[in-house]
Write a structure and sequence with these properties.
This protein has 666 residues and is α+β, with helices and mostly antiparallel strands. 23% of the residues lie in helices and 21% in strands.
């Protein structure tokens, strides 16, 4: 063997040794880890924002993880260390409640004493209130049963269902109800039904013995729901992932989907209840079945579908379905995230969750070279009101968003005073923008409007309104409707606090409104009946030119990425009844369409392709008349449809009935 061979062999040997140590180093980190690791950019997230959230989480120590699309994009601390998650245990208890409901062992609105005859006693004073028979399982699971805070045998503070009070005692009674129904240790049952299917082992999670009451009830281990679980962040993430996927894990429905929906949303019977103490603010508006939530938007700039388990020292399982996102944190004993005196009790979570949410929503920069945006110009640069007239103090600019705050009340400040109108006037155009509204918000978009007057009548107003809150709205008042004139299709508006995309096309008398990709208004004003839906006069429908404006009325609304494309009436394609669009605008592949067009032209003739009411491609003479032969049959059938609609023909009648007398059937 020569010296060169020896050198090569030594180099290869060294490389193998390096590879061995590198692989083992990373194998130790990820061994047994359920979620694959991804770079933030791979799942559409901003690394700097995630680092900001991580830095805040580490200000009080502990461990944590952020997951998107089922992949870990950020981790910190010891992933295997078990933390005393304190009150986050309540959401594990809720999970056991979901299993019991699925098994038919428990009903939410059943009296709790039907499952636990000695419920609430001791102390004997509770029996004297006469309230124990009125406590339901739902009361115990929503903190409305009335038990005092500690986890032992606590006194009742108020009649069940009349107030809200954060308690460990109530959830602990709930744990006993379920224990007595199954007559099994809930720790064993949870491992059997939930933890083991999720891949959670007893090294990942332990449930301590009851610290507030005797260790057994009827000879069965007595567990707590108020607190008691020690778990690592991987176990927390697994439970969060189960809820993110509506109770389903690897095609196994571990929890009922309806239960997950109920646990993650508000409870009608709880909303608005007075809190026994003022420690948690208006907690009854954002608490469900032992899970906290953001349905009322109390934590600004966080989606309203977010919900979380939360324990002392800020152990967390945060689930945000709209972003396919999970954030978990194990809190270090004796250390809490920094709090400000007098702040909303949710605000401590803001510096953790807002950067994570912002990481998914980076500032969007539109490129006019993009065919989908060709011809559009911005009406808002994210910094100034340069394209808008006289914004009042209620309007502000925050992080690239145009924000209206407050409420315009009748008899006080007038809506007219706060509308925001464009500097320029427009005739035919496509307006695109994104908007987010607060709960109970009511606003609108003025179209071809003058500076003065109620745009809904002196011009047109496209409604922006919280359909979810306002009950009893007329069809012509709902979101996207041309107010008082044309009703919009419903079911496409997102929940308050979530961003929506909207496009308004105005071309002569033709108006089309597209919300989150769905066409909700498609109307030609020339075809409207003389009497409007609201029975009022709308002279502004005849206007052909005017300003665009935002018309706030109640609560908050925000706007961003506002841009407009003017449509020139003398352009040849604008003479066609269908407005033109690029293939990408209607999610079609241009190359495939070209292939179809070339094939069609091999036999000559003319043609066009339309999707979503928009002309995507045309070839040949669009005005030339052709003998369409048997295609006439499909046009003729339209006459049959009209006859059926007019009750002139019935489909199942004998045809002889409609033939003139004396003409025999063929």
């Amino acid at each position: 063997m020569n010296s060169i061979d020896t050198l090569i062999r030594c180099q290869l040997h060294a490389m193998l040794i390096v590879c061995y140590f590198v692989l083992n180093m990373y194998a130790g980190e990820d061994q047994g880890f359920l979620f694959p690791v991804a770079m933030p950019e791979q799942v559409g997230m901003n690394k700097a924002k995630l680092e900001q959230a991580k830095s805040y989480a580490l200000s009080a120590g502990g461990s944590g993880m952020i997951l998107r699309h089922g992949r870990a994009v950020s981790r910190w601390g010891d992933q295997k260390k078990r933390y005393d998650i304190k009150s986050a245990t309540k959401s594990f208890g809720a999970t056991m409640l979901g299993v019991a409901i699925q098994d038919g062992k428990i009903e939410l609105d059943a009296p709790a004493k039907s499952y636990h005859p000695t419920l609430g006693v001791p102390p004997q004073s509770n029996a004297k209130t006469g309230w124990l028979d009125k406590i339901t399982i739902r009361h115990l699971a929503t903190q409305t049963a009335g038990f005092d805070k500690p986890g032992g045998y606590e006194k009742l503070l108020f009649r069940p269902g009349t107030q809200w009070h954060y308690s460990d005692g109530g959830p602990n009674w709930l744990a006993e109800c379920i224990t007595l129904q199954y007559r099994r240790d809930l720790e064993d049952l949870m491992f059997e039904r939930v933890f083991t299917p999720l891949g959670i082992t007893r090294d990942d999670l332990r449930w301590r013995k009851n610290q507030y009451r005797k260790h057994e009830i009827d000879g069965i281990p007595r567990r707590e729901f108020g607190a008691g679980i020690h778990a690592n962040v991987e176990a927390l993430a697994r439970l969060g992932y189960l809820y993110l996927h509506n109770g389903c894990w690897k095609n196994q429905q571990i929890l009922p989907k309806k239960f997950v929906e109920m646990a993650s949303r508000h409870i009608d019977s709880v909303i608005g209840l007075l809190e026994w103490s003022d420690k948690y603010g208006n907690a009854s508006d954002h608490y469900s079945l032992l899970w906290w939530n953001n349905v009322d938007g109390a934590l600004e700039d966080v989606p309203r579908d977010a919900y979380w388990a939360w324990g002392l020292y800020d152990s967390l399982i945060v689930v945000i379905p709209s972003l396919d996102l999970i954030v978990v944190r194990g809190g270090e004993r004796g250390r809490r995230l920094p709090r400000e005196d007098g702040a909303n009790h949710y605000e401590v979570l803001g510096p953790l969750l807002r950067p994570v949410v912002a990481a998914v929503f980076p500032p969007r920069v539109k490129d006019d070279k993009d065919e989908n945006e060709a011809g559009f110009v911005s009406l808002f640069d994210g910094r100034t009101f340069d394209h808008w007239l006289n914004p009042t103090s209620r309007w502000s600019i925050r992080d690239g968003r145009m924000v209206f705050s407050g409420e315009v009340k009748s008899g006080g400040l007038k809506r007219e005073d706060h509308k925001l109108m464009s500097v320029r006037q427009y005739e035919d155009f496509i307006l695109r923008f994104e908007f987010k509204i607060g709960k109970r918000a009511n606003s609108g978009v003025a179209i071809r409007a003058p500076l003065k007057g109620d745009a809904a009548f002196v011009a047109m107003e496209i409604q922006i309104i919280d359909n979810h809150y306002w009950k009893g709205l007329k069809s012509w008042q709902k979101h996207g409707s041309i107010y008082g004139v044309v009703k919009a299709r419903t079911g496409h508006l997102k929940q308050p606090g979530e961003w929506n995309t909207e496009e308004i096309l105005c071309q002569g008398s033709y108006i089309k409104v597209t919300l989150n990709g769905a066409v909700i208004v498609d109307a030609d004003l020339k075809d409207l009946p003389d009497k409007t839906l609201d029975g009022k006069n709308h002279p502004g429908l005849k206007r052909t030119r005017g300003r665009i404006g935002f018309l706030p009325h109640t609560k908050s609304s925000e706007y961003r990425n506002i841009r407009i494309k003017e449509l020139h009436p003398n352009r040849a394609d604008d003479q066609f009844p269908f407005p033109s669009a690029q293939p990408e605008q209607v999610a079609m592949d241009k190359a495939k369409l070209e292939s179809a067009r070339k094939y069609a032209q091999t036999g000559g003739g003319s043609g066009c392709i339309i999707r979503g009411g928009q002309l995507i491609m045309a070839w040949g003479d669009q005005k030339q008349k052709y003998d369409i032969y048997s295609s006439t049959k499909s046009i003729s059938i339209t006459a049959l449809g009209l006859a059926i609609m007019d009750s002139k023909i019935k489909m199942h009648d004998n045809a002889i009935k409609y033939l003139p007398s004396g003409i025999p059937p063929v």
